[in-house]
Amino acid sequence: MTLPLSPAARIFQTLWRLLTIIVVAAFTMMLVVMAIQVISRYALGIAVPWTDEVSRYLFLTEIFLGSVLALRYQEHIRITVVTDLLPPSLQQAAAVIADLISILVLLMIMGGAFNMMGRTAGVFASTFDMSFAWLYLMQLLAAALMVAMLVESLIARLLGKPSRTLLTDRASRSE
Predict the structure, then answer these.
(1) For residue range 29-41, what is the model confidence (pLDDT) as tens digits?
(2) Rounded distance between C-alpha atoms, residue 108 and residue 110, angstroms
(3) What is the dihedral of CA 27, 30, 34, 40, to 10 degrees?
(4) What is the pTM of this model?
(5) Where are the domains of the chain?
(6) Fewer CB atoms < 10 Å away: N or C end of the chain?
(7) Residue 28 C-alpha from the chain's centroid
(8) Which residues share a beta bridge with 131?
(9) Around Cβ 65, how many Cβ atoms within 10 Å?
């Protein structure tokens, strides 16, 4: 028997579904745009100038927002040869240190993204009307979500609680 979800849990469940839809849509649109690019260039002999930029921006969308999903499901690549040899208490300490370093790096990325949003607000893509600031906003939002997840995970680790929480619920992938 499953317990009903709290309003906050429902909001985060909706957020994860929406984020997944956005990442899948960006990937699908990128495939379509790249197919247009290849077909127009090699089959029709016509270069469509906007396809290169659009596919690049969609790819960046996948990278930044997809990395948030990868963190949620603990699917980032990691090398655990050394940490697997450590006793459980030292593994816990290594995980805390890794979380702290990750948070620090992500905070620096957020600062850089915020700075670049201001610097590129008036700079637009060469083939269509989109400010570069949107790309940095996506990077800022992705890093902020990852910081929130890592802070939540870090707090749970330090309190000795399981990491199944609102932001980092890894129990169900079939949402």
Answers:
(1) 999 999 999 999 8
(2) 5
(3) 140
(4) 0.82
(5) 8-78, 86-165
(6) N
(7) 17
(8) 124
(9) 20
Do residues 150 and 106 lie in contact, with contact meaning Cβ atoms separated by under 8 Å?
Answer: yes
CA distance 162 to 170: 11
- CA pair distance 76, 157, nearest whole angstrom: 19
Any idea which residue has 């960046």 for tokens?
60
Burial of 171 (0-12, 13-18, 19+ CB in 10 A): exposed
147 vs 105: CA distance, rounded Å: 9
Q: Sign of torsion, CA 142 81 104 132? A: negative
- Report whether 153 contacts 162 (CB < 8 A): no
Q: How far apart are CA 151 and CA 58, in angstroms?
A: 28
Q: Taken in order 95, 98, 104, 106, is the CA torsion positive or negative?
A: negative
| pLDDT tens, the chain, 175 aa long | 566 777 877 888 899 999 999 999 999 999 999 999 999 988 888 888 889 899 999 999 999 999 999 998 888 887 778 888 889 889 888 889 999 999 999 999 999 999 999 999 988 888 888 888 999 999 999 999 999 999 998 998 888 876 665 565 554 444 4
What secondary structure letter does DSSP report for 124? B
Token readout for 151 is 């802070």
